[in-house]
Amino acid sequence: MRLYRLAYTVVLAGFVTGATAIDAHEPEENAQHYCKLFSKVRDNLSARFGSNVDPLTRFSGVDVICDHKAMVFRQDVSLRSSDIDRDWVARRTRNWSKTYCGRHAAFARAIRNGWTISTVLSLADGRVLRIDAACHDAEA
């Protein structure tokens, strides 16, 4: 639930920027289209940098690295490594994947075309946790 509000905002930003206009039948051009889409998402979310997603999570930015086909959300989380177990990570991973694979086709196509959509969580004790969205055919 911690990432839900941010992920929802990102999905809405995708709708607002015209993400549905991306055509998966043009792979050579997709990288440019996805780069443009993700850059618009980043720009739309820039006003939210530093804001609280929930009582434990602060949104600290989005990086779009087009030559590496990556969009990375950064968040500071007021949890320590000892507060997080495998089940917590598994739930966050499922939620993150569902957000980007099941709620908007353009994001799922980008992932299937080699893009990585990640969230990097900086924990209170200095540990960094990265979660990548993974799309499977059943989620499309």
| Strand residue percentage | 15-25%
**What coarse outline follows from CA principal-axis ratios?**
globular
Mean pLDDT: 81
Largest sheet: 5 strands, mixed
Order of helices and strands: HHEEEHHEE
CATH C-level name: Alpha Beta
Number of strands: 5
Rg, rounded, reads 15 Å
> How many domains, as an integer?
1
Strands across the major sheet, in which order? 1-2-3-4-5
Structural class: alpha+beta
Helix content: 40-55%
Short structural summary:
This protein has 140 residues and is α+β, with helices and mostly antiparallel strands. It has helices at 4-16, 27-45, 86-102, 105-112; strands at residues 52-54, 57-65, 70-77, 116-123, 128-132. It has a 5-stranded mixed β-sheet with strand order 1-2-3-4-5.
Describe what this molecule looks like in 3D.
The protein has helices spanning 4-16, 27-45, 86-102, 105-112; strands spanning 52-54, 57-65, 70-77, 116-123, 128-132. A 5-stranded mixed sheet has the order 1-2-3-4-5. The protein has 4 helices and 5 strands; from the N terminus they run ααβββααββ. It has one domain: GMP Synthetase, Chain A, domain 3. It is an alpha+beta fold and 140 residues long. A hairpin with a 2-residue loop joins β1 (52-54) and β2 (57-65).
Quick tags:
GMP Synthetase, Chain A, domain 3, single chain, 5 strands, disordered N terminus, five-stranded mixed beta sheet, 140 residues, alpha+beta
